[in-house]
Each structure stands twice: as C-alpha cells, then as structure tokens.
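Re: your question from the hallway

Yes, I did run it. Sequences:
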Amino acid sequence: MTAVLRIEDLTLDIVSSEGTKPILRGVSLEVEKGSVQGLAGESGSGKTITGLSVIGLEPAGAKLTGRIWLEDIELVGLTGRRLGDIRGRRIGMVFQDPTASLHPQLTIGSQLTDHIRYHLRESKRAAQARALDALNRVGITASQRILSRYPHEFSGGQRQRIAIAIALACEPEVLIADEPTTALDVTVQAGVLALIRDLVDTLDLAVLFVTHDLGVMSAIADRVAIMRGGQVVEAGDRHQVFTDPQHPYTRALLASLPGAKGGINSRADLRRLDLSANAIEGDGL
Amino acid sequence: MSSDRPQPILEADNVYVEYRGTPPVKAVRGVSLALYPGEVVGLVGESGCGKSTMARVLTGLLKPNRGEVTYRGQPLRPLGLGRRPLAETGIQMVFQDPGSSLNPRRRVEAQIADGLRIAVRRGALGLADEGSGEHSDEASGERSGQRPNSGGPSTPAEWLVRVGMEADDARRYPRSFSGGQRQRIAAARALAARPDVLVADEPISALDASTQARVAYLMTTLAARQGTSLLFISHDLSVVRLIADRLVVMYAGRVVERGPTEQVWNDPRHPYTKSLLAAIPVPDGAGKLPAVGPAGEIYPDHEATR
Ligand SMILES: Nc1ncnc2c1ncn2[C@@H]1O[C@H](COP(=O)(O)OP(=O)(O)OP(=O)(O)O)[C@@H](O)[C@H]1O
Ligand SMILES: Nc1ncnc2c1ncn2[C@@H]1O[C@H](COP(=O)(O)OP(=O)(O)O)[C@@H](O)[C@H]1O
Ligand SMILES: [Mg+2]
Ligand SMILES: [Mg+2]
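Structure:
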C-alpha cells in the first residue's frame, strides 16, 4: 500500500482582528493509490478546510503548521508556479456546487482545453482530443458540438460530470472531492458515485472524499475518518468504523441514522431517541 | 359521500400549476391529495417535481391555475391583500431554511407568542394573553391553576422545553442558535398555533445527519399529541419512511404512486419509485454502490392506481 497523499499533524488557526480561532487541531490522514479515503463529521468540523489546505486554498489569515506530502514533495508553503504545477495537474478537485468550478460564460470545450494546455502545454488539437477523451470517460458522449455548449445547457448531474472531467483531464494522481454529490438527486448521485469508483479502480486514482452523508461514505469509501471540532476522532477501515465504532461520537452519530447498524430502523427505534437539542453535544454548532 | 369515512381536513382536487415564463413551466399537472385528521403524510420526490409548489397551493400561498383546495369542506381562499381569515390560520407551515420561518430581529419568545395568540383567537387554547408577547412567559405563568383546554404548553418557555431546548433560550434571538435548534423553534412557533394542519417543506434537509431523525420525530410526536395533521415534504425517503403513515410519490408534476408507507417502501410498484428507493445509499459499511437507474429515462405519465 502506497500513500500518495499524507497529511501529518495539520494545525490551522485563523488569525483576525477578533483574535485567533483554532480550526484544525492536529489532523493526520493518508490517501492511498486506487482507494477512497472518506472524511465525514459534523458541520463546521473542518472537513472542507482540510481539503482546501492540501491544494493551498486555505482561507485568508490561516496559519498552518504540520506537513502535507504528495509523494516526496512537501506542499505546505509552496507558492506560485510550483503550487500551480501541482494544483489542477497532480491534484484535481471537485466541489459541491459544479457552477463554482465551471465558468458560466465559457464553453465547456474552452474550459477543458485551456486547463489542459496550461498544465500540459499541448497543441490545441491534442488538447481537444484529450478533452473529448475526458468527457467520454465521465459518461458524456463527447462531440465537437458538446464542446461548444455552455454549462447552463447541462443538467446538474451532467455539470458535476463535466467538473470531474476537468479535474481528471490532466490525469492527476489525487482527487479532492468535497461533497461532490450533495447537490444532486439520489438517482443522479448514484451515477456519479459509480463513476468515481470506476475511475479509482481503472486509473488507480487516490481520492479524498468529503461528505456529511454516511450513506454515501459507506458506498464509496475504502477507509473512513470522522472529524469533530477540528480533529479526526476516529479513522479506520470502512467496515470496521461502521460496524464497530470506537469513539463515542461515531457511536452516537450512527445510532441516530436510518439504515446504520444499531441506528434508527423502525418506529420503535425512533421512540428511544433522545429528543433534546443537545443530545449530541453541540448539535451542529 | 359516505358518512362513516372521516372527512379530509385539507384536500387538493386535481390541481394544476403553471409558472409563467418562456417556456412556461408546468410545475403541477393534476395532483389530488387529501390529508385526514391526525395523520402524517410523506410527500416525496426529487428536486423540481413540484413538492414545494403543492405546499404553497395547500397553504393558500399560491392559487392554482386549475383545481381546488378545500379546508374543512370550504374552498380555501388564497392569501391576498389584508389578513388571512382566522379559521385558515389553522394551517401552518415550516420551511427548509429556518431563516424563512423566523424573524431574525425578534426574540424567540415573541415569535412563539405569535403562535400562541393565533391559537387563542381560534379558540384552540383556553387562555387569552393580551400582552406584547415579549414577557408572556412571566405573564401567563402567573395565572393560577388555569391551564389551556388540551393541557399542552401555554407559554413560549414551555414550548421551548417541549421541543428539547431550555426555557432560558426564550430571551435569545434566532441567529444565536444552530440550524437544528432554529428548526425546533420554527416548529414550536407553528405548533403553538394549534393548527389543524402543519405543512413542513423539507424541514430537515439543511440539518446535520445526526439531527435529522430527531427533529423529524419530534415534529411528528408533537403534531400527533395535539391532533395536528402533518404533511412532511422531503426528497430523502430514509427518514420520512419512518415517520409517515402514508407516502405520496411525485415525479414531474404528477403523483406516480401512493399508499401506506410500509407498502410503498417494501413493495414499490411504479418504476420511478423503484429506482428512487434503489438509489438510497445505506450507511451499513457494506461498501455497496447504490443502483444506477436507466439513464435519463422519462417515465410515462401515469397516475397512481392504488
Ligand atoms: N473563510 C473562512 N474564514 C474564517 N473561518 C472559516 C472560513 N471557512 C471556514 N471557517 C471556519 O472553519 C471551521 C471549519 O469549516 P469547514 O468549512 O472546514 O467545515 P466542514 O466540516 O466542511 O463543514 P460542512 O459540513 O458544514 O461543510 C468552521 O468553524 C468555519 O466557521
Ligand atoms: N416561482 C417560480 N417561477 C417559475 N418556475 C418555478 C417557480 N417555482 C418553481 N418553479 C418550477 O416549478 C417546478 C416545480 O418546482 P418546485 O415545486 O419548487 O419543486 P420541488 O419542491 O419538488 O423541488 C420546477 O421546474 C421549478 O423550476
Ligand atoms: Mg464543508
Ligand atoms: Mg422544494
């Protein structure tokens, strides 16, 4: 097993005029080739910030300590062209809202080919061929006509596929996917999950998959990490975390979910729920 | 109509809604839906299928192009200028974003007191409180012995406790609460009015997974306790199927399937319902990808047969 991406003891504070706000408190994670590392946990626990830190997009005022390795390159502190050579080239990313990764006024063809030409410095013709390939790979039957369309001419699920195509066009080793299916209907989500799994298996891609949905996590992740209050409170093999959770927070989380082992699977289970607002301490605060 | 069958409290009959635009959007295309006293109906379907449009029609916020809504056997007058007729405040609503159910600039107690006042005016709660509402907990707490006729909470503080919060939270403003807490406050405000019907449009969709089942069950039990019928709208079946007595499945502006929850969940008939159920990912650690339905299939227009 080879970890392509290693996050070691990452600590992040946001310093502003209001003082110092601790966001991440010693996060360590590894993502292996051909495998999906899931990252779940409560809202505000630091999942998104962890993913953004990997690609050098942490918020303004962030002070970061710890190390992030892509193979043997240390990413913390990289700037300029050296960061640009990695972000989008060796590490692709996809976010919840595909409109955030797609420019509304540019055809998807020019977005794909600009991205490819910037990173791979290929001829226009080669970049176009690669763009068509990338679209075919995500299940969009590609043609010159498709390339000349604008993002709004596609459905939500298709737009997310296009965002994935751009993220993967330069054949990165790592994909950071932050809630990539959260805005999609479940039937559309099923297709995108199957696509990501297929890319992991066929391209040996390493994926850091952020989601708040433990059903999605159970479907896609090989290894699972659960975050809370800026820390990874539990990490392990998917099956182990779901069936034999060790941390009280993970246990409480699963106990409140429909479909989970020991979760809410009947009306009788509902009746034993603690209904007070702070039943799981913090209640999403 | 036979007299041994209970009358629906709220009923939409063959409703059509078309939004103007180029092209116009046929959002609802012939939907009939009845809510009987005290029941919980889950209205499910994917985004854009017309659930929120039906919610607005059923609460009188939107006049359908065709078809009629009756409340207690009388045509529901859509909200127009001026105030909604008193009887119709027997229909309350909770939205996905608790921000749209609550006023950010008023204390929580004042907003729950609004609900209580509606209940009093409708004669659904015994006590009249003529005060401003800001201090209603002290005010009505003083009234000796007298309790509202049905024995439920009669002050904002009591309502907060009923929805799992602290009495002290009454003095705070909505923004200082988490999403889950705000949704509890919105439920308290709506239910304090002792409505006959509560229409909740995606009330748990914006909440953390750990909170969803608890808030849904809380709304259900509180509604049941005071005999309020609940229309619980959601695109996510995994929680709804646990709280609803009946399910109504919409697809592209129509009802494609309806029936008792167990029947629809265990034995879906319509191909759309089948693919919807098969696509729900289960948090069991099995690593099973949800089934991918037939790509881009348009299901035939088809009203539920049962
Ligand atoms: N740009 C920013 N400036 C300051 N604080 C921020 C910024 N972005 C996020 N935070 C704070 O950092 C913490 C972690 O946020 P993050 O977005 O990583 O959470 P998350 O786990 O992804 O939550 P969610 O499930 O809601 O997406 C939160 O306290 C949040 O308020
Ligand atoms: N105010 C509006 N103006 C125009 N179209 C609308 C409006 N509200 C909803 N629609 C359209 O009507 C359809 C049904 O929407 P909606 O009832 O909100 O669905 P749901 O709540 O099931 O997601 C969609 O195609 C939507 O885009
Ligand atoms: Mg996030
Ligand atoms: Mg809606």
